[in-house]
Amino acid sequence: AGLTVSYSPFANFDPTPIAAALSRYPYGCSEQLASTGYAALFSVASGGGAKARMALAASVSKLLDREALDGSFGLWQVGDGEADPWTGAFIVDFLLDAKAMGAPVPDEAIGRAVSAMRSVSQTDGYTSVGYRMQTYGGYGRTSDKDRQATERLRSRAAAYALYVMAKSGHGDLGRLRWFHDAGFDKEPS
Known about the structure:
This protein is an all-alpha fold. The chain has seven helices and no strands.
């Protein structure tokens, strides 16, 4: 029999109440569905039964219903253009983990989502995926503050997208090298 060893900086930390709170979250946007799905995934991973597997499959199914043909995910429904690219990377990350845990995630859906991540990883140009790629202050005007916020949004989403692409086995070593050499100097976190 194998021995499982784990480490946490928190003594006697029980994640069960957090998972339970996530499963009751009332709104159901795509980010919340992925977060709730992660709670179910962790329950399945720790030996949770049929109820946990059903909750995981339900989260996956609802998210896949929000995937557009370009591989982007809507925040509330397919094609709504409300999700930012970092949220998209979070959803794809979750779907990869769910698939690895045995949840029904079609290869075609993963392929489209990873293709969208390839577009997100390109911070230096135009992207044609259905994510909200800019930050606006309102009234159709953009300020220097908005441009800086957009640059941060795109940079952080690109880093996450590159990670998700590598995790899926479809990493872009050239873009990752470019991001390492040019992008990390600009990224404060």
